[in-house]
UniProtKB/TrEMBL annotation:
The organism's taxonomic lineage, starting at the top: Bacteria, Pseudomonadati, Pseudomonadota, Betaproteobacteria, Rhodocyclales
Database matches in NCBIfam families: PncC_domain
Annotated protein name in UniProt: Nicotinamide-nucleotide amidohydrolase family protein
Domain CinA C-terminal: 7-157
Organism of provenance: Thauera sedimentorum
Pfam families for this protein: CinA
Superkingdom of source: Bacteria
């Protein structure tokens, strides 16, 4: 793992441990990279509960209870879907906070409305509505996915009261 992701993961772990919170992840376009980043950090079993890799729409529905209607109306890459993914990850884990990502990493699959690099990120804590945002990253598939992981870790650090970027 690269140094930036390792540092973000360590900071996230420190912030979560300070609050005695545990994390769950729900990932589509990153395919488990957030879970890989946090589990590469020594001691992460103290603050990481589980990760869901929900690449297909069926997996999103079956594992996270994303509504088929939400997917039909808004698509998998949408703030509505990642909002439901966050809620599903919290409902199906023992975590206090969760993050969800769904995007178009490329090189194909983009559209005029959702070009390659479009990624929706959601994060939230139990008992609170999730925060969601849509971003447009640049670069190839690996670059889009890596930027997504770094951004998601930063949002979680901020949520947990660490020194991450502010929550929008």
């Amino acid at each position: 793992m690269d140094a930036e992701l390792a540092a973000l993961s360590r900071r996230l772990g420190e912030a979560l441990l300070a609050r005695r919170w545990k994390l769950a992840s729900a990932e589509s376009c990153t395919g488990g990279w957030i879970a890989e980043a946090v589990t590469a950090t020594a001691g992460s079993s103290e603050w990481f509960d589980r990760g869901f890799v929900t690449y297909s729409n069926d997996a999103k529905c079956e594992m996270l209870e994303v509504s088929p209607a939400t997917l039909a109306v808004h698509g998998a890459v949408s703030e509505a879907t990642v909002r439901e993914m966050v809620a599903g990850a919290l409902a199906h884990s023992r975590a206090d906070v969760a993050v969800a990502v769904s995007g178009v990493a490329g090189p194909s699959g983009g559209s005029a409305a959702k070009p390659v690099g479009t990624v929706c990120v959601g994060w939230g804590a139990c008992g609170h509505p999730p925060h969601v945002e849509t971003l447009l990253f640049t670069g190839d598939r690996e670059a889009v996915r890596r930027q997504t992981v770094a951004h998601a870790l930063g949002r979680l650090i901020a949520l947990a009261g660490g020194e991450g970027p502010p929550i929008a």
